[in-house]
Write a structure and sequence with these properties.
Structural class: mainly alpha
Helix content: over 70%
Radius of gyration: 19 Å
Distance between the termini: 66 Å
Low-confidence stretches: 1-7, 167-174
Shape: elongated
Mean pLDDT: 90
Strand content: under 5%
Oligomer: single chain
C-alpha cells in the first residue's frame, strides 16, 4: 500500500461516516453526494461504491445502482452485500434466475446472511412456487433468531405459517 493510500483512508472513512449518517436520516441525496466524495478520495473502496448504489436505488435510479453494484463486485469479488443488492435489483426486474445466482453467491461468501436466504426464498417462490421457498425461509428464520433479529424472525415465521395455513385449507384438511 502506498503512503498516499494510508493518508486518504482516514479522510475517506470520515466522509463515509457522514454519508452513512445522512443515509440513516433518509437524506439519500446528501448521502449520494457524500458517498461520491468518498469514492473520489478512495476510488477502490468497493463498500463505498456499493453504499452509493443503495443511495441511487433509494432515489429511484436502478440503472446507476446496478452500475455501482457491478463496479463494487469488480473491485472486491468477495463483497457479499454487493451480490445481495444486485440480486435484489434483478428480483425487482423479475429476472429470478439472475437474482437467485446473486443470492447464491452472497450466501457462498457469507453463509449466515439471513436476508440473502430470505430474499432467495422470494425468488424461488416466484419462479418455482411456495414449497421451493420454504426451505430458505425456514433457514432464514433460524438465522434471524440466532442473530437476535426477532422482528425479522417473527415476520418470516408468519409467512411460513401462512403458507401452511393456505396449504391446509386448499387440501381440505381443516
Amino acid at each position: 500500500m502506498s503512503p498516499s493510500t494510508y493518508a486518504t483512508r482516514p479522510v475517506a472513512n470520515d466522509i463515509l461516516s457522514s454519508a452513512n449518517a445522512k443515509y440513516k436520516n433518509r437524506d439519500y441525496l446528501g448521502a449520494l453526494t457524500a458517498y461520491t466524495q468518498a469514492i473520489r478520495v478512495d476510488p477502490n473502496n468497493a463498500l463505498a461504491i456499493c453504499c452509493r448504489g443503495v443511495a441511487y436505488y433509494r432515489l429511484g435510479d436502478d440503472r446507476d445502482a446496478m452500475t455501482d453494484y457491478n463496479q463494487a463486485i469488480a473491485i472486491d469479488p468477495k463483497l457479499a452485500i454487493a451480490y445481495y443488492r444486485r440480486g435484489f435489483l434483478h428480483y425487482l426486474a423479475q429476472d429470478y434466475p439472475r437474482a437467485i445466482a446473486d443470492y447464491n453467491k452472497s450466501i457462498e461468501l457469507k453463509p449466515d446472511f439471513a436476508l440473502a436466504y430470505s430474499n432467495r426464498g422470494y425468488a424461488y417462490r416466484d419462479l418455482y412456487g411456495e414449497q421451493e421457498a420454504l426451505i430458505d425461509w425456514r433457514f432464514a428464520a433460524k438465522l434471524f433468531k440466532e442473530q437476535g433479529n426477532i422482528t425479522k424472525y417473527q415476520s418470516t415465521m408468519r409467512l411460513i405459517d401462512l403458507i401452511y395455513d393456505d396449504a391446509s385449507c386448499a387440501s381440505g384438511m381443516l
